[in-house]
Amino acid sequence: MVGYLIFLTISTGIFALFSLGLNLQWGFTGLINFGHVAFMTVGAYTTVVLSLYGVPLIVAALIGGALAALLGLLIGLSTLRLREDYLAIVTIGVSELVRLIVNNQQLPTPNGLIDGVQGLQSYPLPLTNIVPSPLFKLVAIALLTAVAGLCLWRLWSWVRKGEGKRNTRFSFATRAILGILAVAFVLTIYITGLSALNDYSRYEKSGLMVVLLVVVALVFWLLEALVRSPWGRVLKAIREDEQVPKALGKNVFWYKLQAFMLGGAIAGIAGAFFAWQLTTVYPSNFEPISTFYAWIIVVVGGASNNVGTLLGAIVFFTYEEATRNFLPQIVPLDEARLGAFRIMVIGLLLMIIMVWRPQGILGKKEELTLGK
Known about the structure:
two-stranded antiparallel sheet; globular
C-alpha cells in the first residue's frame, strides 16, 4: 500500500508540475499550447543522456529545463505573432516533430549509438543507491514536514480568510468541506512519506517523492510571486487585451516569449522526474495524450489559479486510479476498449464541468480565457 501511494504521489506531482507550466502559458498569458509535451520530451531525454555520461543528476535536470526553454524560444520567435488558432496548430506539429525525431534518430550513449525506438534504460536514478544515514532521514523528514506545513497553512488561510469565497463564490461550508478533504490528502501523503523514509531500503523512491514535492512547492511559490508582481500583471493584461499593454509601451511579444520559455522550462524539469519515475523512456511515453491530460488538469482546477492546478492534478489522478481499479468490475470490456471508454468518460465529465462551472473549481469566471 505504501509503495502504491508513493507511485501515485509521484505521478500526481509530476503532472502538477507539468501543468503549472501550461497554466502560466495559457491561464495567465492566454497562449494556446497544444504541444506542451514537446518540452517534457526534451527535458526527459536531455537529463537521461547527460546522466549516462556522468553529469550530476541535478545539473542534468537543470540543463534539460534550459534546453526546453530554448525550444520555447525557437518556437516563440516564429509563432507568437500568430493568431491563437495558428499557434495551437504549430505547437501540435512541433510536439509530434520532436517525438518523431527522437523515435527515428540514434541517441548517443557511452556504449555507442542506440536507435531511438529502442528507448533509453539503465540510467542513474536519484537517491536510490545510497545508504540513508540518520542525518539524511532527518533532512528528508524536515523537508517533507515543511511542504506539508506550507500546504496546511495555505488551506487554513483559504478557509478562514474567505479567499475561496472571494475568488470562487463558494460558501463557507463548501470551503470547509474542500479544506477537510485537502487536509486528509496532505496528511495521508505526509504519513506515507514518513513510513517510506523509515523503511528506505524497501521504498527507495521515497527520496524521489520528497525531492519532487519540494520542487513542486518551490515552483509553486515562484509562480505565485511572479504572477502577483508587475510582470504577472502585464501577462494578465496581455491575456485580456494585448493592445492595452502595447499602448502603455510594454513589449508584448517579449513578455509572451518569457512566459512561453518559463512554462517550457518547468515542463522540461517535469520531464526529468517523469524519466526517473519510469526508469526507462521510450518515444511512446510522450504522445499528445499527455498534453491533453495537462489541459484537463488546468481546466478542471481553474485557469490562472496555481492552487487550482494542483487541485486539478489531484482530482485527475484520483479519477484515473479509481476507474483503473473499479471500472473493470462494473463495465465488462476488455483492456483496450476499457481504456477508450475511460477517455470517453473523461470527455463527458469535462463537458459537464464546462457547462456547470466553465472557470473550473477554483478559477474566476471573469478571468476565463476560453472563447476569447
